[in-house]
Design a protein that fits this description.
The chain has 9 helices and 21 strands. By secondary structure, it is of the alpha+beta class. The relative contact order is 0.21.
Length: 320
């Protein structure tokens, strides 16, 4: 039996990883049942979801539909229904997938994604088609990969966790703006945040020692893509067993415009104003508590300890 979750996505400002396969095949011919959890406030739905459900039916997946009112209900629902569920299908964006993370880790159920959010960065990382019908066919095919999951102060994330500029952007994004403007809403929120952006002091602690920085943003990526397709580091993968950090230490916000192409390709570490590090654990301390953004949602504050849970989730993805 499968669990399908439908909601709008919410990106962030850091990422990673097109993975190398730790994969298996789940028999696509066996009859499976799907519980479809639908967020009525999701940005996308309707016909794309209807077509995906038809593909599930033809592929031997029986579907029942139930609405959820908030992201906080998602993981508890997965755990509560675990005995009657064969797999979980998250229909929505990165924020909805993130909401399912604790339930997936606790139950060990394999998960699939129907990308119906705004940025769909995890889907990009896994090479899942952004067309929901094509993504449904990937789930029916049954090929899975084992993914790492990031952890910051007990909060899980697939793509990236960050503080500074990206947290300011997340705070300025309303659900209504995302529904109305889609990916453009992030550009609008970013411009507003940049106008008031100021560097802050932080200490980054890692195995090689502590580093004091003056930065606009610190991002710790577990996956590959974030922020609607930017790349956290050119060689990052979501199953490589480590986290990739960058600290944006520019003196003037204007310089970010020159750096944008490098961020899209994941080669921003070539700029001397961008500090990068790769490790399995980081700790970040600031003079006063600063909010941490995970996959688009503000969930905790500094001091923050970042760790990785290796091969914690099985996710349906195209065979490589």
């Amino acid at each position: 039996m499968a669990l399908l979750i439908f909601a709008a996505g919410a990106p962030c400002l850091c990422v990673m990883a097109t993975p190398q396969p730790m994969s298996s095949e789940i028999g696509a011919t066996a009859r499976r049942r799907a519980l479809v959890l639908v967020n009525p406030n999701a940005r996308s739905g309707g016909a794309p979801l209807d077509q995906a459900l038809k593909i599930f039916e033809r592929g031997g997946i029986e579907v029942s539909i139930e609405q959820f009112a908030s992201a906080a209900e998602v993981s508890p629902d997965i755990v509560r229904r675990r005995k009657g569920i064969d797999l979980v299908v998250v229909c929505g964006g990165d924020g909805t997938v993130n909401a399912a993370a604790h339930g997936l880790v606790e139950t060990g159920l394999p998960a699939g994604i129907l990308p119906m959010g705004t940025a769909n960065d995890l889907a990009r990382t896994l090479n899942i088609p952004l067309n929901p019908s094509e993504a449904a066919a990937v789930i029916v095919a049954g090929h899975t990969r084992r993914l790492d999951v990031g952890d910051v102060n007990g909060h899980l994330f697939f793509n990236v966790a960050s503080l500074g500029l990206s947290a300011d952007i997340a705070r300025g994004l309303s659900r209504e703006a995302k529904r109305r403007w889609g990916r453009f809403s992030y550009a609008l929120a970013a411009m507003k945040a940049l106008l008031s952006a100021r560097p802050f002091g932080a200490v980054i602690a890692m195995k090689t020692g502590d580093v004091r920085v003056k930065t606009l943003q610190i991002a710790v990526g577990n996956g590959r893509h974030y922020g609607g397709g930017s790349i956290v580091e050119a060689s990052a993968a979501i199953d490589d067993g480590h986290l990739d950090l960058y600290s944006l230490e520019v003196s003037g916000v204007w310089k970010l415009a020159l750096m944008l192409p490098a961020f899209r390709r994941g080669v921003h570490g070539a700029w001397r104003e961008v500090r990068t590090a790769r490790c399995t654990e980081f700790e970040i301390r600031t003079r006063r508590p600063r909010p941490i953004n995970t996959d688009g949602d503000l969930v905790t504050f500094t001091p923050a300890r970042f760790t990785i849970r290796r091969s914690a989730v099985a996710m349906f993805a195209p065979a490589i």
